[in-house]
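Recall that a protein's primary structure is simply its ordered list of amino acids. Everything else, from secondary elements to tertiary packing, is in principle encoded there. The following example makes that idea concrete.
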Amino acid sequence: MASSSSTNNSTDNHTTAWDKSSLPDQIETFDDYKRLYALSVEDPNQFWKMAAQRLNWYQFPTKIKNTEFDHRTERGVEIKWFEDGLINVCYNCIDRHIEKDPKAAEKTAIIFEPDMPTE
């Protein structure tokens, strides 16, 4: 990934902070970001399928986004993501990073912050 840079870009009378350090590798320029944002609005299934490809799956989902927003039906609102996929969340959050960089095992992986200070 390219090095981090922060600049302000003005589009549509909005100012956007631009920091590439936390973005996926396919985003090198602000135009790349705008292209992917447009895809997320115009074809959310394709956008989220691309995002899902960044994870390791036992079974890659064929059903990416399944939403129902009909308050007149008994089901009402129903939202399902990657419903027929099979994934190991722990592997994706921790293990694959340790495989890539064994020294990562020495770093803090998860910090628990309770909702209530007494927890």
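The mean pLDDT is 81. Helices lie at 30-42, 44-52, 89-100.
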